[in-house]
Design brief:
Blueprint (H helix, E strand, L loop, with lengths): L1 E5 L3 E6 L2 E4 L1 H5 L13 H4 L1 H12 L4 E3 L5 E2 L8 E3 L5 H8 L6 H4 L3 H4 L2 E3 L4 E2 L5 E3 L6 E3 L1 E7 L15 E9 L1 E2 L5 H4 L6 E9 L10 E6 L2 E7 L7 H11 L7 E3 L7 E3 L4 E6 L3 E9 L1
The protein binds manganese (II) ion.
Length: 285
């Protein structure tokens, strides 16, 4: 099932060019009181919601995908976890680029581990990436994003994929420079997730997905998730050995070679097989 969030906090099931509005199904399942849970409540409830979404579709109103503003399919991730250089060809590319301060930042992922991006950096596919430091280089990074579906602590790689509820396309936008990744990659709008999330049962093999990113129609990144240095199972095992993953936590799995700059006025198109594609504008502000 392809599930999106759109317009004014509405929830939809995507089929072809249409969105079936199933917002009422989510709203009927109750309000939350302070302290709010640290997980995303819709993702935590997804197993129960799916048959209700399916049933609601029959009488739901529908709107065209092209007529809505797509939001991040996960509204409130407790954490946005991300893997640094996790494709060997990108590691080699980064090593050749002095601007990236190789010695400090480009150690192998097995030494560095993972980092976190601020929740406030999250946007959906219809919103623009807004550059703040236009005097410095800002890069695109396409990544497969896994949406955690249930609480995961000290998970073994054998069980890891059973904790994934859904997948989406991610853009891990990056300001180049010497600051910590968590700062440079947490600028407002620098975590794009969309265009919807595809439930895990619809992906035959998350380790064999084709990623393609173009800027203004020119292909920049093209790779397969088969080339991840640490695969998705390994990333979940690593992350959950440090902290508990909660429903709705987002895991950016790393970007392949071909990372390059964007400037205001550019258009980024990001596509992952079996998930879809999204086109995102770049502005300055
Ligand atoms: Mn990245």
């Amino acid at each position: 099932m392809r599930i999106c969030r759109f317009d004014n906090q509405r929830v939809g099931v995507v089929e072809g060019d249409w969105i079936y509005d199933v917002t009422d199904v989510v709203r009927e399942r109750g309000a939350y009181r302070y302290p709010l849970p640290i997980h995303d409540v819709m993702v935590a409830d997804l197993e129960a919601l799916r048959p209700a979404f399916e049933a609601a579709k029959a009488t739901a109103s529908r709107v065209r995908l092209t007529d809505v503003r797509l939001l991040s399919p996960v509204a409130n991730p407790g954490k946005i976890v991300a893997a640094p250089v996790n494709y060997s060809a990108h590691l080699a590319e980064a090593a050749e680029d002095q601007a990236i301060h190789f010695d400090r930042q480009m150690k192998q992922i097995k030494e560095i581990g993972l980092f976190l991006k601020a929740g406030s950096s999250l946007i959906g596919a219809s919103d623009p990436v807004v550059l703040r430091h236009t005097d410095r280089r800002n890069d695109h990074e396409i990544e497969l994003v896994a949406v955690i579906g249930r609480t995961a602590s000290k998970v073994s790689r054998h069980d890891a994929l059973s904790y994934v509820a859904a997948y989406a396309i991610g853009l891990d936008m990056t300001l180049r420079g010497v600051e910590e990744r968590s700062l440079r990659k947490s600028i407002d709008s620098f975590s794009v997730v969309g265009p919807w999330m595809v439930t895990a049962d619809e992906l035959s093999d998350p380790a064999n997905l084709q990623l393609t990113l173009s800027v203004n129609g020119e292909t920049r990144q093209q790779a397969s998730t088969a080339d991840l240095v640490i695969d998705l199972e390994g990333l979940i095992e690593m992350a959950s050995s440090f902290y508990t993953l909660h429903p709705g936590d987002l895991l950016f799995t790393g970007t392949p070679a071909g990372v390059g700059p964007v400037t205001a006025g550019d258009t980024i198109t990001a596509e992952i097989s079996q998930i879809g594609s999204m086109t995102v504008q770049v502005l300055a502000g």
